[in-house]
Amino acid sequence: MAFSLLVPASVFLLALFCRHGTALQQLTHDDGCVHMPIVHSTNVDYFSSKRGVQLQLANRSDIAYYAQLSIGTPPQPVFVQLDTGSFELWVNPDCTAVTDSDAAFCEQAGQYDTTKSSTAASLGTNRTLRYGIGTANISYFTDTITLAGSPTTLQAVQFGVATVSEDAFSGILGIGYGKGVATRYLNFVDQLRAQNATRVKAYTLALGSKDAQEGVIVFGGVDTSKFAGPLARLPVLPADQSPDGVPRFWVDMQSVSITPPPNGVGRVYEGSGMPVFLDSGSTMTLLPPNLTAAIAGNFGARTADDNGFYRIDCALARMNGTLDFAFDGVTVKVPYKELMREVPTDPPACFLGIMASEKFTLLGDTFLRSAYTVFDLETDSIWMAQATDCGSSPAALNSVQDLSSVTGACGLSDLADSASGTLVPSSDPESIDGGGAEPTRSAGSEASGTVAGSQDTGRARLTSGTSRCFGSGVGLALSLGIVLVLHIFS
C-alpha cells in the first residue's frame, strides 16, 4: 500500500447539505449525504504555485488522497490517507520512523492529543495494523469527529492512536467493510449511517483527472455530473472466494487491452482476466509480472529498474491512446497521461503507473482516476462507469436499489471517438514506438463494454421526480472538518 502526504498552505472547502425528495434526494442535513471536493494541490485556484519539497520517485508522498478530520472537543485537525483497501481509522504516525521528504510531510499532517479533548475516552485495548507498506501499533479511543460543511458531529467514534509506527508518514482513514465483516466495532462508514449522516451505507469516488484539478467524494449519494451512461453493477467477491481471503472490494476483471494511436486498433492481452481489488490507498496499479512486462513493452520499456518501476517516454502523455480495463457491462478507458507518473527532475522522468506483483492484483489510483466508482456496502456491489466531468450535481440516495436506474449526466462523444477501433487478440510484437513486447498470457493493504449516454438524458432522469444535494458555497480554511487533497507532480 502506498502512503503519501503533502499539506499545502491553504485550501478551500465547499460545504454541501441535503434535503428531502425521492430516490436521489436532497435531504435534511442530518439525514442524507456528505459531499466534499477532492482538491489537487496543483490547482492554482486554491493553492500557491509553490511546490514545497520536490520528491524522487522513491518517496511515496508525491501522490495520494487525504481527508482532514477534526477530532475531539475542541476539534483538532489531522490529515489521514483515504483508503478503500483497509477498514480502520488511526492517527499520529511516528515521523521519526520515516526519512527524507516523507518525514517533512509527516510533520505537517497534524497530531491528535487525547489529553486536550474533553470527549476523548480510552478503551484500554491495543492492536498492530499491518499494511503492504508500513505498520502501526495503536491504542483504541473514542471521540467526536466533526464533518466540515455539516452541523453533524459524529459522537463516540472508535479509532486508533498510534504509539509506534514504521514506514508510515500519515494516519489512515480505512473506508472498507466494518462491523461484522472486517471489524468488531462500527468503523467510520458504519458511523455515518448509524448516526444518520447518510441514508445508505455506500459512497462514491470520482478522483478527478490530472487536468481537471479536482474531484469529489459523496458519502451516501452520487454525483451524476462525474460520469456517463448507466452504472454497471459488479458483485464483490466473498472473502472466502477472493485471492487473499480478506473482505476487500474484489471484483472480476474480464480483460485488459491497449488502444494505441493513431489507428485505434486495440489488442487484448491474453490471460488478463482475473480478480482485482479497488484500492485508493495504492498509488500504483499492481498486476502479474508477465502481464505488466507485456504492457510495459508496448509503452517502449524493456526492463524495470531496481525499484520495480518501468521508465517510459514522457511524450506518451501527449498521445491519445488508452489502456482499457473491461468488466461485465463496462469498459474503463485509462488515457496514457492518467496512467503515467512524472517526477519533476530536470529533465522530467516518467514512469508507467503499473508495477509487477506476485502477491496482489489491485487497481490503484492510476486506474481509479478514470473510473467513477460506487462502493455499495449494503449489497456487496461495486457500481462503475467511465469517469468524465460535466459539472456538479451531487444527490443523496434514498436506497442503494436506486443505483440501477441512475444515469450519468455527461456524454461520451470524445471517448467514443477514441474507442472506435476494433479489439483483436494481439499477435504482433508492436509497441507504441514501433518495437516492444507482445501481450502475453499469465496465470496491498491491511491484513486481517463501454457505456453510452447523453447529457440531456442524464439530467432528465435527475429532474424527473428527484432533486439534488446543494452546497452553501462557503469557503473554509483547513482548520475545520474534512477535505480531500491530492498532491500530484504532473
Automatic annotation (TrEMBL):
Q: Where is the Peptidase A1 domain?
A: 65-385
Q: Where is the composition biased (Polar residues)?
A: 419-429, 442-459
Q: InterPro entries of this UniProt entry?
A: Aspartic_peptidase_A1, PEPTIDASE_A1, Peptidase_aspartic_dom_sf, SAP-like
The cross-references to Pfam families, in alphabetical order and at most eight, read:
Asp (PF00026)
Q: Where is this region: Disordered?
A: 418-459
Query: Please, which domain of life does this record's source organism belong to?
Result: Eukaryota
Name the keywords, alphabetized: Aspartyl protease, Hydrolase, Membrane, Protease, Signal, Transmembrane, Transmembrane helix
Instruction: Provide the leader sequence positions.
Output: 1-23
What Gene Ontology terms describe what this protein does at the molecular function level? aspartic-type endopeptidase activity
Tell me where the transmembrane regions lie. 470-489
Q: Write out the GO biological process terms.
A: proteolysis
Q: Which residues form the active site?
A: 83, 279
Q: Which Gene3D superfamilies match?
A: Acid Proteases
Q: Which family is this sequence assigned to?
A: Belongs to the peptidase A1 family.
Q: Which PANTHER family match?
A: ASPARTIC-TYPE ENDOPEPTIDASE, BETA-SITE APP-CLEAVING ENZYME, ISOFORM A-RELATED
- This protein is called Acid protease
Q: Which organism is it from?
A: Parathielavia hyrcaniae
